[in-house]
Amino acid sequence: MTPTHLPGPVAIPSLPEQTRTPPSPTALESFNSAPADEILRTLRTCLHSPRWAARIADHRPYPDVDSLLAASDEAAYDLAPRDLAEALAGETLPVLPEGVYGAAHTALDAAHAAYEARFGHVFVICLDDLSPNEALDHVLAGIRSRLTNDPEEERVLAAEELRRLAKGRLVAHLRGARP
Question: Which pathway is it part of (predicted)?
Fold first, then answer.
């Protein structure tokens, strides 16, 4: 069966791995010693903000993973509205799990359209620690509940979700790094 894609730029990150093994020290060493252009490309896959990526890359080497993740958070908190808009614009919708039925696509499309019409940017939500069976319901509930926010409140929430996504993606990169 071919995976189904939803149209539109709703950002639903890949579901987290079931096992939570901490990154190895060699992964951090690889991160710290990677060429600048390579690490910038990698960081831009974690958060689509060149300013955030440059800030993280420029402060290498990090003594430990916690320091790297703290720097990631700090850089994400410091995103200017333009940087936030750029990061939101880079988010895309991944493939939904097999078996998701057509009515779910319709509901998600409608909720996304309403959200984007109200706020002028894609919906982002971090799904870390959720099972694949809970993800779609969580996304739909999140969009519907956040539609009641005022634009400034939603900008703050979207920035927080981007921060959480970046952190999770950074950890995933470190887990996948080769010694």
Answer: Purine metabolism; urate degradation; (S)-allantoin from urate: step 3/3
